[in-house]
Amino acid sequence: MLLDYLQHAKAQFHRNRLYPVLGEMAARHAELLALQQGKADITAQFPRQISGIDWQNRQFEYKTSTQPLDSLQDLEAILEVGKSLLGEGLEVGKQRYEEVAQKLEWLPVGLLPLRKEEGYLLLGTQSTWETLCYRYELSLFENNLTPYRSLKTRYIGTFRRSLVESWESLKAKIIRQFTDLPNPATFAAIFPQWLPVQPTLLPVAKREFVRLLVGT
Fold this sequence. Notes:
There is one protein chain. The protein is of the alpha+beta class. The protein folds into two domains: 2-102; 105-215, no CATH class. The chain has helices at residues 2-14, 21-44, 70-102, 167-177, 197-215; strands at residues 48-54, 59-64, 105-108, 118-125, 130-143, 146-160, 185-191. Strand 1 and strand 2 (59-64) form a beta hairpin. The radius of gyration is 25 Å and the shape is elongated. The relative contact order is 0.15. The model has no long low-confidence stretch (mean pLDDT 85).
């Protein structure tokens, strides 16, 4: 089952479809690490008996009075193989993610307001005039007292630029159509070419966009 899953995942990566497979694989890998740690904690709780004295380090030596169950040993072998295979698959996905992210160019469109937590994210390529427009909202929340940034996006339309229409004029057109944001922060995420939008371009742009906003 694991080998079939990895074959499916790598096929998705080869087709430039990173999500949701990459996120799922990272979660499964983390679960395996947690299971492996849990197994180690269970083994550490087995009763121990003093077997000797380490005179050099001045400490007792112990042996486990109850041998680990065969099922736990089998589980350890399965976890180790699964961790290795998932780790390899995860590296393939991460590498493909970095290849896409490194080619992404960011363009602030027009004057940026002081408040950048809400505005428009424009998604386009260098080879076409078609532009996807998303309204975004960046928020801060805490999970187990750890702060996280969450970026929500809502697709509002597809616009087509031309030789005589700049990014700034496209922004002005969007403002005239959606008047509730009179001076929105607007950024263009420009990729070399179109790849699958929902599985790749949009999630990559969103993750990198959070880093951009937090850093500005």
